[in-house]
Amino acid sequence: MIPEGLSFASRFDKVTGSAIREIFKVLGRPNMISFAGGNPSMDALPNEVCANIARDVLLADGKRILQYGATEGYPPFVESLVDYLASTFTFPVSKQTVLPTTGSTSGMDLICKAMLNPGDTVLVESPTFLGNMQTLNLYQSNLVPVESDDDGVMLDKLEAAVIEHKPKLLYIIPTFQNPSGRTLAADRREPIAKMAAKYGFLVVEDDPYRDLRYCGEDIAPIKAYDQTGHVAYMGSFSKIISPGLRVGYMIANEDIIRKCTIGKQGTDLHTPNLNQAIIDQFLRRQLLAPHIAEIGVPYREKLNLMLDELDSFPKGTKYTRPDGGLFIFVEMPETFNATTLFDTAVESGVAYVPGTFFYPDGGHHNTLRLNFSNSTIDQIKQGMKILRELFEANI
Amino acid sequence: MIPEGLSFASRFDKVTGSAIREIFKVLGRPNMISFAGGNPSMDALPNEVCANIARDVLLADGKRILQYGATEGYPPFVESLVDYLASTFTFPVSKQTVLPTTGSTSGMDLICKAMLNPGDTVLVESPTFLGNMQTLNLYQSNLVPVESDDDGVMLDKLEAAVIEHKPKLLYIIPTFQNPSGRTLAADRREPIAKMAAKYGFLVVEDDPYRDLRYCGEDIAPIKAYDQTGHVAYMGSFSKIISPGLRVGYMIANEDIIRKCTIGKQGTDLHTPNLNQAIIDQFLRRQLLAPHIAEIGVPYREKLNLMLDELDSFPKGTKYTRPDGGLFIFVEMPETFNATTLFDTAVESGVAYVPGTFFYPDGGHHNTLRLNFSNSTIDQIKQGMKILRELFEANI
Fold this sequence. Notes:
The structure is a homodimer.
Chain A: H1 18-25, E1 33-34, H2 47-66, H3 75-88, E2 98-101, H4 103-115, E3 121-125, H5 130-138, E4 142-146, E5 148-149, E6 152-153, H6 155-165, E7 169-172, H7 189-199, E8 202-206, E9 231-236, E10 248-251, H8 254-265, H9 273-284, H10 288-311, E11 318-319, E12 327-331, H11 342-347, E13 350-351, E14 353-354, E15 367-371, H12 377-394
Parallel strand pairs in A: 1-13, 3-4, 3-7, 7-8, 8-9
Antiparallel strand pairs in A: 2-10, 5-6, 9-10, 11-12, 12-15, 14-15
Helix pairs in contact in A: 2-9, 3-9, 4-5, 4-8, 6-7, 10-12
């Protein structure tokens, strides 16, 4: 009970955080095979390398690392991050257009803080990442879903929604999308950047999975086509080094970065220096590219295995075939209910995330999200067998 | 320039972040003696100890540390933190009433997020900590100053303000206050907790300096008198271990902690595990108490030296005589202007923070804040000599 006479802020009216939390609570049970979550494989977390790096940086520059840092970032990391981004992308990046963040969750929070008043409309993919939907809901934004096909957001639907709803933001995960695993087609990217400039909204491009590509060619981000500052790009080291370190970054127009920096002064003052220094050494010691190549091998194998397993699921089972990332999205026939079946699945030893949580309007109970990165080959075989039998019995 | 058609959120209308930033920019100049900032002494930052701890924890529990963590905190740290708090305070503390935060700045942000709607009134000391005033302003709260004397907030003024303004929160730094260095008298603490319960507002007790006591006896926090959940206590390891690690905590009513936890899911998901694990080892290895005792010796010496130097400042100079913390607050005669004199002081090689920035209503240009922790004995002697001569010439 809240103490007498107190009340919570109205930004929580639509946010309970409860349903999905109940799901994640069961993941700790012994012998649970979890296709829920979006965790990297434990094998992919370089703790020995980080142990040595952490020690090295605290001995070499420990006084600066343990002291208050600049909101703008730990200077060596800002430098190596700018170099890394400049060598990764075709568009210019500078200290003035980059801000380290405490994971890209905090980047999302800062962009919302900078841009959104209560009631402002934000266009989102449908389905989309539930965590950032919660952040958007905490800013009391009006979420309007835009329809996607296998090539991502449909341009005609997007433009119609822009004209009808006059959004402040479009929130989009263009590459190996969460939860769908889909990738926005290359030829839809420039038109989205142009549309943002034409109609005056900000594209928030959330791109944490881009380096986890298991086949096909890299595609330039929407940000690469941004001539006018209408695209803010959010990147993260969570999926390619460690989520527990909480280091991400955003790239945006200088004035947007400035506003987010002022917002960040009031949120966490700065991303912890030690965590920035560890990622900095990953970049300076040129450990990142080989590490990504190394973790990609088992991830590809697990993805392909899960796709193979899905081939023998009951007739009417549809699923995405991602070129990378961490997720496969499954759509069962309309009569199937993945939400109500969840408890039974858990009792049988397998967890997934019911797809309904990824839809701004709910519904879509016939869908679910499967993660393959955080299970072993054996767990995938065993867990998919259990799911197949369960789905066959409940279709 | 913000890209065409975009606009920033109205929460920034009263927040520019610029004046104080300009001040902090000059601190990087070579040979600058800085009495600005609130930084621990470089000598007080235990980087070698942290280097070994960081390596140890990443080798011993690195997979869990580098993986996504719980918003509720890194489990070993939550355990050791609860034990530490239970042995420090007389009131009960449990896992359900504690939340690790990314520095207490993030604790403040989360409490505002949980409790404040735009336009809600927050009572603050006058002067008070400018950083958290910025956080409060970003939540568009209506800041109402309450008068203090040498024993902190005056109870009759506080009750009158509560009755008149019906505040949602009282934000208060009871011990070695920032910027004044004053401590709220022991016999004013219980009445404030009772007043919060009677009138239905939340006391946000910000207590990062309490362990930096150089004389006198510990005083129980306001939270110790809280029978009803109307006090939220924010603590921090920034001043006693490292601000760059960004680890703090809050203690509050279970439902308030729950709401802040949901808010934190959308802000940074969790405080980085590694940083929590380092503080955890400080507690488990019983390094904290001896470290605090060790850093207190030079801090006491520096405080006393700065007070001695102030004794010979021009007639009419008033200043606080703190029993601990990091700051002395100076009040010059009304005709003196510490704000306009700042540039000249910097040209002479000494920086301070003009007091005006700590007042919700501005003004008070005859005041300034001096920090003694982050300068050497020689710098204090030299810097105070420069200030004395400058003030004599400008009084």
